[in-house]
Automatic annotation (TrEMBL):
Origin species: marine sediment metagenome
Name this protein carries in UniProt: Glucosamine/galactosamine-6-phosphate isomerase domain-containing protein
GO molecular function: glucosamine-6-phosphate deaminase activity; identical protein binding
Matches recorded under Gene3D superfamilies: 3.40.50.1360
Any one GO cellular component localisation term in the record: cytoplasm
Length: 217
């Protein structure tokens, strides 16, 4: 596998070049298959590219009716009395994607998916972790840790998180045929999305993570 490095003049140029590359990949893939499965990221880096892609969709250069998207990550523990309030909180990645990309599209994607973190009640999660320490373990050699829930935990809530929230999202991606192209950024300490540096790649395809403070900042 080769890596192509492209040096851009500035943020706007980078965003334009990235959008053109993505457009060509989408067009090529849609000549080969019925749907394009698009992996998306949040953060400041892709926002300009998203605006350019939205313009391309709205001008008819990209067929959004054949695109299905999956986002990398979502927070657990945002303020809100229920999942709906948490999803629409300004810090949620669901809200971010609506503001920065999905809401700009005149013709929407077939489906957009963001990990189901907002369905988790953080207070109940912490209580279950404290009450059932035998049901889980921490993985990772740096400050950020993966909370690995064991098979068939005693806690019904932790079982629900493992089966529905984590494995359910991975299965949804698999059922769609896997990601054709994923947009990612690399954090200052080497993390990719909420996969913190030092967390092993073996094991679950979707992680529950206790974040490094640097990632939150």
């Amino acid at each position: 596998m080769t890596i192509n490095v492209i040096i851009a003049r500035d943020f706007n140029h980078m965003s334009e070049v990235a959008a053109e590359i993505v457009k060509e990949i989408i067009i090529q893939k849609l000549e080969e298959k019925k749907e394009f499965i698009f992996g998306l990221a949040t953060g400041n880096s892709p926002t300009g590219m998203y605006k350019n892609l939205a313009r391309m969709v709205n001008s008819g250069e990209i067929d959004s009716n054949r695109i299905r998207s999956f986002n990398l990550d979502e927070y657990v523990g945002l303020p809100g009395e229920n999942p709906q309030q948490r999803m629409l909180h300004p810090e949620s990645y669901c809200y971010f994607m609506i503001q920065e990309f999905f809401g700009l599209l005149d013709k929407k994607f077939i489906e957009t998916s963001v990990p189901y973190g907002c369905l988790i009640d953080q207070e109940q999660l912490v209580n279950e972790l404290d009450t059932h320490p035998e049901d889980w373990s921490e993985l990772g050699i740096d400050a950020g840790k993966s909370i690995s829930i064991k098979e068939n935990p005693a806690s019904d809530y932790l079982k629900w998180i493992k089966k529905t929230i984590l494995e359910g999202y991975a299965q949804k991606i698999s059922d769609a045929g896997g990601i054709d192209l994923h947009i990612i950024g690399v954090g200052g300490r080497g993390h990719v999305a909420f996969h913190e540096s030092g967390i092993p790649f073996e094991g679950s395809n979707v992680l529950l993570v206790k974040l490094d403070d640097h990632t939150v900042d």
